[in-house]
């Protein structure tokens, strides 16, 4: 379901489709004990999504040429701690998990987020969207993207995932203005200062019941 066009050419990715109603812990039990320990007290659903996303990450790392198994632990605010020469991102939602990685010599930071292709609750959108973003949601809906508000949320989450490893600072929904384009691209203009880059570019798609957004700072 994921496509290479979402990512830089140097990136490698992996995804799995899962049963939404029956969590499978096989990938969790196959993790390094240090990885398992990160969610060892969680419910099975959380263990399953964590295990699947980490499994995807390790598969993508192997595709990148990292054959030695190193546990992917967590840093500040849950940020994955990748091998020193790698940047990447993971995502999980109901029935879908994925990861993407790339060499740091080509890509500085990345973000990946996936959500069900469903409209957000009406009361949520006001806390996510800036006033300047509302007209484009109407435009996207008129073009057949019924989950335009969820797409905006997804783009902001992918933006934050690329932002935090560069800055180690929180980025609120109001601190990035997203320009979502009909061609499957978007630009996140960063409104907070200081910032290492003025904007973060991304790509998006809606497919098989999911909306997916990916960002990269090259």
The CATH topology assignment of the largest domain is Ribosomal Protein L22, Chain A
Helix content: 25-40%
Reading the helices and strands in chain order gives: EHHHEEEEEHHHEEEE
Task: Please state roughly what percent of the residues sit in beta strands, choosing from under 5%, 5-15%, 15-25%, 25-35%, 35-45% or over 45%.
Answer: 25-35%
> Structural class, from helix and strand content?
alpha+beta
GO cellular component, one term: plasma membrane
GO biological process, one term: enterobactin biosynthetic process
Keywords: Magnesium, Metal-binding, Transferase
Organism: Corynebacterium marinum DSM 44953
Q: How would you describe the overall organization of this protein?
A:
The protein folds into 2 domains: 4-106, 4'-phosphopantetheinyl transferase domain (Ribosomal Protein L22, Chain A); 114-217, Ribosomal Protein L22, Chain A. It is 30% helix and 28% strand. The protein has helices spanning 26-29, 33-37, 44-63, 122-128, 134-142, 148-167; strands spanning 12-17, 73-74, 80-81, 86-93, 96-103, 109-116, 176-180, 185-190, 199-207, 210-217. The longest helix has 20 residues, at 44-63. It is globular and about 50 Å long. It comes from Corynebacterium marinum DSM 44953.
Summary of the model, kept short:
The protein is α+β, with helices and mostly antiparallel strands and about 220 residues long. The protein is built from six helices and ten strands, in the order βαααβββββαααββββ.
């Amino acid at each position: 379901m994921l496509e290479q066009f979402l990512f830089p050419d140097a990136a490698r990715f992996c995804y799995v489709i899962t049963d939404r109603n029956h969590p499978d812990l096989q990938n969790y039990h196959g993790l390094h004990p240090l990885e398992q320990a990160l969610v060892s007290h969680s419910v099975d659903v959380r263990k399953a999504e964590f295990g699947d996303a980490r499994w995807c990450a390790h598969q993508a790392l192997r595709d990148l040429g990292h054959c030695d198994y190193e546990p992917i632990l967590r840093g500040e605010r849950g940020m994955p701690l990748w091998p020193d020469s790698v940047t990447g991102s993971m995502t999980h939602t109901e029935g879908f998990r994925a990861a993407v990685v790339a060499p740091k010599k080509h890509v500085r930071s990345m973000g990946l987020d996936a959500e069900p292709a469903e409209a957000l609750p009406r009361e949520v959108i006001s806390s996510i969207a800036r006033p300047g973003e509302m007209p484009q949601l109407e435009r996207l809906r008129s073009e057949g993207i019924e989950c335009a508000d969820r797409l905006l949320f997804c783009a902001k989450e992918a933006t934050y995932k690329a932002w935090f490893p560069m800055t180690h600072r929180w980025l609120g929904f109001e601190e990035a203005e997203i320009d979502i384009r009909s061609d499957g691209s978007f630009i996140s203009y960063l409104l907070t200062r200081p910032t290492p880059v003025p904007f973060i570019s991304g790509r998006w798609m809606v497919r098989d019941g999911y909306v997916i957004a990916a960002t990269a700072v090259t």
